[in-house]
């Protein structure tokens, strides 16, 4: 077997760049459309503490491992695993770890870019005043017209291409002139913009209610389901299992303190999630609860409707969705990097050509998700659209599988000396915790997460009234008119919350998720439906 082409594909010039790049990779849509809802539902401040404990004790060791693998080898995840396999004299079958992680990053990037294109379109929609005086039905109609109207799918494709070009243009400039310069400016700029919007929300919104629901301690709402919700969110929100941390680790300068930087990133991600939660709760709710809102319904319906009531609403709506674009854009840049790095190390192609070819492939793959909302909306395999299957495969199979394999390989196949060399100078307590977490805790926890994710996703397809081989719906689940009584619920809401709270959230579901004469039944003028909460099983970004 020929030796793969090897090259040093780049490195950062400043030690703080790893921090900013990692913050850009971890702060994603989960911070905006999932975390506020979970904190409000599962005990407020107590849930935040539980979430931090899950981050520090379960997912932080895996983050350190992935970054340390990249830093030790100075390669992307595929060649990094190749070097470790040779050093530890292990089976070449372990090479599947790196290849599966690249596949996971590719698939997640393909539908992340679709979300980014919607947010990009909303920047212009807000600036042009399309939401001025809009109610919930009108806002749902705008979303449906962009995403779900089969006659307008070419417009949606145009926004998709526009967003991808913004990502590819920066990546093609190189690690230093493109990635490093952009992330050192955009990530701090996005955080400043978030602080400005938070101040605006505190001035015009219901900040007292937000603090009460998200920061105040509510022990009566804490349960075993809260721990499950914290574990799921801690695992999926950090970009694990996709080679991102390995490539960023390979780019670090010798002066970068890797473990301290990763700890700072985890704390920053949590702080951003709290600020985003307070901001969204203050301006997008009635001051009592989230009423089950998250995902598409919260971000693309409730937010514009509420913001349209503020002074200078056009500017405010454009600014809010500019923040969303920056968040998804930095996430996409980080997801693209391990794929481009792998392609360059595999082929030796120049960066610009590699970015062009990978970008074209991502665009083509993204069309499967984009068209699943409109032209192919009725084309289902096993009761699910192509987008739903892509998300299920990545979230339920690929990402957990890669995480488990990395944990097993580093915990059981590497010698203590090699592990110590890879981790670098480490306190004995941390080294001991890391060793046993990677050997026992993390494989079991992540396997449970993957199984739960997959089981719920398949059951969710059945609850939508779809006919699939694994569906065996009891009669009690179906209402008199033949529709399923337990309508679609987003992933994190169902396995991570008590049944009575799920039922209560179902009763208070927003109008955008219930049938509306203008949009749901008649579809306005086009007869289409806007994406609902259940269209996103979980935010893998």
TrEMBL record:
Localization of this protein: Membrane
GO cellular component: membrane
Principal location listed in the UniProt entry: membrane
Region (Disordered): 488-541
InterPro entries: Na/ntran_symport, SNS_sf, YocR/YhdH-like
Membrane topology: Multi-pass membrane protein
Membrane-spanning ranges: 18-39, 45-64, 100-125, 153-170, 182-203, 230-250, 262-283, 315-336, 356-377, 389-409, 429-451
Record's compositionally biased regions (Basic and acidic residues): 498-507, 515-535
UniProt cross-references to CDD domains, sorted A to Z: SLC6sbd_Tyt1-Like
This protein's UniProt keywords: Membrane, Transmembrane, Transmembrane helix, Transport
Annotated protein name in UniProt: Sodium:neurotransmitter symporter
Species of origin: Marinobacter manganoxydans MnI7-9
């Amino acid at each position: 077997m020929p030796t793969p082409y090897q090259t040093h594909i780049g490195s950062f010039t400043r030690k703080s760049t790893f921090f900013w790049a990692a913050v850009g990779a971890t702060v994603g849509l989960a911070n905006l459309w999932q975390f506020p809802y979970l904190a409000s539902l599962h005990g407020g401040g107590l849930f935040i503490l539980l979430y931090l404990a899950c981050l520090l004790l379960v997912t932080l060791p895996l983050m350190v491992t992935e970054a340390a693998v990249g830093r030790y080898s100075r390669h992307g995840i595929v060649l990094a695993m190749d070097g470790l396999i040779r050093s530890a004299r292990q089976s070449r079958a372990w090479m599947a770890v790196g290849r599966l992680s690249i596949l996971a990053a590719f698939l997640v990037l393909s539908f992340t870019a679709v979300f980014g294109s919607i947010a990009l379109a909303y920047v212009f929609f807000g600036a042009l005043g399309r939401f001025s005086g809009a109610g919930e039905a009108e806002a749902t109609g705008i979303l449906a017209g962009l995403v779900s109207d089969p006659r307008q799918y070419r417009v949606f494709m145009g926004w998709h291409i526009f967003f991808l070009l913004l990502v590819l243009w920066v990546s093609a400039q190189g690690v230093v002139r493109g990635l490093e310069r952009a992330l050192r400016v955009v990530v701090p700029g996005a955080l400043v913009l978030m602080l400005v919007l938070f101040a605006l929300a505190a001035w015009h919104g219901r900040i007292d209610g937000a603090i009460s629901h998200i920061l105040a301690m509510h022990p009566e709402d804490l349960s075993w389901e809260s721990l499950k919700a914290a574990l799921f969110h801690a695992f999926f929100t950090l970009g694990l299992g996709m080679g991102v941390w390995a490539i960023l680790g390979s780019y670090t300068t010798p002066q970068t303190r890797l473990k301290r930087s990763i700890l700072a990133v985890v704390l920053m991600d949590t702080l951003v999630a709290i600020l985003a939660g307070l901001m969204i709760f203050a301006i997008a709710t009635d001051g009592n609860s989230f009423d089950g809102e998250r995902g598409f319904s919260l971000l693309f319906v409730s937010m514009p409707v509420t913001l349209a009531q503020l002074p200078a609403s056009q500017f405010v709506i454009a600014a809010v969705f500019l923040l969303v674009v920056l968040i998804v854009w930095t996430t996409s840049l980080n997801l693209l990097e391990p794929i481009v790095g792998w392609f360059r190390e595999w082929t030796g192609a120049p960066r610009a050509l590699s970015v062009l070819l990978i970008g074209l492939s991502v665009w083509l793959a993204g069309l499967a998700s984009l068209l699943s909302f409109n032209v192919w909306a009725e084309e289902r395999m096993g009761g699910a659209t192509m987008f739903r299957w892509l998300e299920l495969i990545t979230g339920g199979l690929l990402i957990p599988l890669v995480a488990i394999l990395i944990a097993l390989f580093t915990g059981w196949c590497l010698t203590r000396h090699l592990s110590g060399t890879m981790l670098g100078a480490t306190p004995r307590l941390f080294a001991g915790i890391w060793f046993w977490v990677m050997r026992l805790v993390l494989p079991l926890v992540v396997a449970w997460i993957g199984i739960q994710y997959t089981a719920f996703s398949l059951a969710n397809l059945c609850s939508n009234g779809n006919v699939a081989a694994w569906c065996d719906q009891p009669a009690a689940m179906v209402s008199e008119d033949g529709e399923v009584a337990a309508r679609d619920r987003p992933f994190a809401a169902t396995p991570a919350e008590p049944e009575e709270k799920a039922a209560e959230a179902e009763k208070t579901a927003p109008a955008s998720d219930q049938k509306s004469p203008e949009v749901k039944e008649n579809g306005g003028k086009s007869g289409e439906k806007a994406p609902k909460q259940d269209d996103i099983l979980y935010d893998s970004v």
